[in-house]
Specification:
Elements (H helix, E strand, L loop, with lengths): L2 H138 L3 H49 L10 E5 L4 H7 L4 H10 L2 E3 L6 E5 L3 H17 L4 H30 L6 H9 L4 E2 L2 E2 H19 L3 H10 L14 H11 L4 H8 L11 H14 L5 H19 L4 E7 L4 E6 L6 H18 L7 E6 L9
Parallel strand pairs: 7-8
Antiparallel strand pairs: 1-3, 2-3, 4-5, 6-7
Helix pairs in contact: 2-8, 4-6, 5-6, 6-7, 8-9, 8-12, 9-11, 9-12, 10-11, 11-12
């Protein structure tokens, strides 16, 4: 092929490509113009929408702003009105103060005038007084100073006479009320203190499951029972009483050791002299330890500190000792509480009183049976183990063996008597208490119309039931008075007895 032809073909191809390029470019330009127009239209539409939204937002903000402005204006107007009201009130008060000031000024001028008049009158009275004094001096031939001295002497004599009369009346009244006040303190003390009472006996009953055990306790030819009695120091009574063995001894500690030892032997089943001796020794040690624990617990419960260990052991031994049927430890605890309460009422040392009350009967529990009275023996023991002199004197003087040297001593004596004299505390008092209760009820039953009578509240109240047909309401009042008069005149009793007459009316019918 010729080169010219190739060049022409190439030129033609190049021209075709250029023509094609321009055609395509024109087509893209037209399309771009169309897209640009659409974009401009869309932008115009969005612009209008945004302008509308901005206008709406502006209107909304403007309305909120106007509303806020109006609210602030209203608040401002209210504040302004309040200020005006306050200003008006202040002006009114200022006017009132001005009027009051004017009135005070007028009153002041009036008072000054009255004052000058009073001063003038006082001067006239002083001059008249001087004239009268001169006249009196001329009449009585005495100067004012001499008359004053005579008057003072006369008043002194009269005052002394009246003072002596008042003192005498006061002393008599004190004598009358002293017993009442003392009884009141004792009653208050008793009411604030209450302990249990335990009645101890000289025998203990040991229950057994069957009578076969009696033979094992007696042993062959009685060797077991003899060994037991020798080891414990008690009397063992084995009789026909079914399922029971009696342990007799006046020493309650020994009796308790024997009872516990016998219980261990019967439970273990091995009963022979060697075993009996071993068990009794072990039980004795346990009881001694228990006595010390009881003493410690008692002192802790009462708040008493610093007691000698031997005194603590003696306090524990009181648990197994009785006096006239009254447990000695309970009696001593109650006496201690009574003494502390009464000492507080009287303004004395309550701790020392409580200490003396607990230890006042330790002379009853020594291991050796001394012949010295228990009050003096207790005082000697207290002195031996370092107690204070006032406590020792209170222990020794509570039965008047020695002279009382402190105010606590009579308290111990009184509280000891109060604790032992309560109804039910001791057997002797219990018998008289029961007889008094019966006498109260019989006294009420002796009146006509009385159906039943009940003595309640430890004999401090008598409930009397009467027949409603025989006793009217007015008769019930009269009967209550008559019964109380008869009790007061015929009987001896502590405190007072309330007599209550009960009259009941019943209406009964039957449905058939």
């Amino acid at each position: 092929m010729e080169p010219i032809t190739i060049i022409i073909g190439l030129v033609a191809l190049l021209l075709g490509s250029v023509i094609t390029f321009f055609i395509i470019k024109n087509l893209d330009l037209a399309k771009s113009k169309s897209l640009l127009k659409d974009a401009e239209k869309e932008a115009e539409r969005i612009k209008k929408e945004k302008i509308l939204q901005a206008k709406e937002k502006f209107i909304e903000l403007k309305s909120q702003h106007d509303k806020s402005i109006n609210e602030k204006n209203r608040e401002f107007n209210k504040s302004q009105n309040r200020v005006k009201e306050k200003e008006t009130k202040l002006n009114q008060r200022l006017g009132e103060m001005n009027r009051k000031e004017k009135d005070l000024t007028e009153e002041k001028s009036i008072l000054e005038k009255q004052k000058s008049a009073v001063v003038k009158k006082q001067e006239d009275l002083d001059s008249n007084k001087q004239k009268q004094i001169q006249q009196l001096e001329e009449i009585s031939n005495l100067s004012a100073e001499e008359a004053k001295k005579e008057l003072i002497e006369t008043l002194k004599d009269e005052a002394k006479t009246e003072a002596l009369t008042i003192i005498q009346n006061t002393i008599e009244e004190a004598k009358l009320t002293a017993n009442q006040e003392a009884k009141k303190i004792v009653i208050q003390t008793i009411q604030r203190t209450a302990t249990e009472h335990a009645i101890e006996n000289a025998v203990s009953v040991f229950n057994i499951e069957s009578d076969d055990i009696k033979g094992r306790i007696i042993g062959r030819e009685g060797r077991n029972i003899r060994a037991f009695e020798e080891a414990t120091g008690v009397d063992v009574i084995v009789d026909d009483t079914p399922e029971a063995i009696i342990i007799s001894c006046f020493d309650s500690v020994r009796r308790e050791i024997a009872r516990l030892s016998l219980h261990k032997l019967v439970t273990d089943g091995r009963i022979h002299p060697a075993r009996i001796e071993e068990v009794v020794k072990k039980t004795t040690k346990e009881i001694n330890d228990e006595i010390i624990e009881i003493g410690k617990k008692t002192t802790i419960d009462l708040g008493i500190h610093g007691l000698h260990p031997e005194l603590i052991r003696m306090v524990g031994r009181m648990r197994y000792r009785s006096s006239y049927g009254q447990n000695l430890l309970q009696h001593s605890r109650e006496t201690a509480n009574l003494c502390a309460t009464m000492a507080s009422e009287l303004g004395l040392d309550s701790k020392a009183a409580k200490r003396a009350g607990l230890l006042h009967d330790i002379g009853k529990v020594p291991e050796d049976n001394a012949e010295t009275p228990h009050a003096l023996l207790g005082m000697q023991l207290a002195e031996k183990y370092g107690e204070k002199p006032e406590v020792c004197n209170a222990i020794g003087a509570h039965h008047d063996e020695i002279e009382m040297t402190s105010l606590i001593s009579p308290l111990i004596q009184v509280c000891d008597a109060v604790s032992g004299a309560r109804p039910g505390a001791r057997r002797q008092i219990l018998d008289s208490y029961i007889s008094r209760i019966k006498e109260l009820e019989e006294t009420a039953l002796s009146f006509p119309g009385v159906v039943k009578s009940y003595a309640i509240q430890a004999g401090r109240e008598l409930r009397v039931v009467v027949e409603s047909e025989k006793v009217t309401d007015s008769d019930a009042d009269k009967l209550s008075f008559l019964i109380s008069e008869k009790i007061q005149n015929d009987m001896t009793y502590p405190g007072q007895v309330k007599v209550t007459v009960i009259r009941e009316t019943r209406a009964i019918s039957y449905a058939k």
